From TrEMBL:
Subcellular localization: Cell membrane
Domain of life of the native organism: Bacteria
Membrane-topology annotation of the record: Multi-pass membrane protein
Domain ABC3 transporter permease C-terminal, first and last residues per copy: 261-387
InterPro entries the UniProt entry points to: ABC3_permease_C, Lipoprotein-release_system, MacB_PCD
Sorted UniProt keywords: Cell membrane, Membrane, Transmembrane, Transmembrane helix
Residues of the MacB-like periplasmic core domain: 16-225
Name listed for the protein in its UniProt record: FtsX-like permease family protein
GO cellular component entries: plasma membrane protein complex
Amino acid sequence: MDGADSGSFTHSVTRIATVSIALGIAVMIVSFSILHGFREQIQNKIFSFGAHLQLSRYDTSNSLEVAPISEPELRRQLVRYPQVTSIQPFARKTAIIKTTDEVLGVVLKGVSEKHGPSSMRQNMVAGKFIQFADSAASDDIVISQKVADKLRLKVGSPALFYFIQQPPRVRKFRVSGIYQTGLDEFDEVYVLGDLRQIQELNAWPDSLVGGLEVRLRDFSRLNATFDQFYEQLPYEVRVEKITDQYAQLFDWLQLLNRNVIIFLILIIFVATFNMVATIFIMILERTKMIGILKAVGATDNQIREMFFFRGLSITLKGLVIGNVVGLGFNALQFYFRIIPLDPENYYMDRVPIAWDAQVMLLLNVATLLAALLAVLIPTYMIARIKPMVAIRFD
């Protein structure tokens, strides 16, 4: 049947069908890889500032500065949950940074590396992260690129922080590093410092912190774990989900997911429609052959199988080519970063790629099943072809 295709109109249509399937699966692989990579990058940036769950003392005010909570007591309760992977203490305090020419209000977030390195290290673009000392509080701070640009600060620059409290306090810090997430919710607000600085400013003992950030083994179990914490932890402990704190960002990511799924359904529809058209044309061009086969005793199912396996061959060829093209593009972008992005608009400096073998396998299986179902539709025409009429068909 392949040899008969050569030089015929069917041969051209077969090529178009193969190319449409190849392009469809390649576009789907690249689209899902970019979408997952983009989502992972954004989520990791958000998680670096707040983990999955945030626990603090219940407070009716909306202030960033909340009443302290006992870290050892709450930690002992959290380590009982197997889904918890890390627990990081933190505290926040509003401040005003004053330089020679500029004044800027910020939130100083105190962090600690006593229980593991901070996930904020992944966002560093210059300098070093805070160098924590064993005894005294570190004077190092990490500021965002936006804050650095506004205040004309660079790595090694001193910075005066004014804390509005009774009595007012002033601290001189040193910029040890600069971070950049591309998310204005963080870059325009937060400066990172040693947790012990805030404990000293608030006259807290080492056991008191502003709250605990809890990271889970499986983000998909966030809601279930939140419900469990809400029911079992003491009533004075406030539990917040990261998806509620930054709802606008997660809603935006969810909207992207919906748009891509609609786009992919349209691609599969076009590829399968081309397959239907191809098999229709193959049957019409071989009507005389079908009549002869029926005249010598071939059944409808036997003839239908011929066209079905021909459609399967076209589909598999298209899938192989499409996977090579799609995975090849992903590899080029992943290792060589051939397509850059403007961080001001896209929150990252390059098109991200995430490798998800399960999703890629599902895409191939879905395309294969859709194409084969499409192949079956036109083959039912074979039962309506009469041998005597078909043999005279020209």
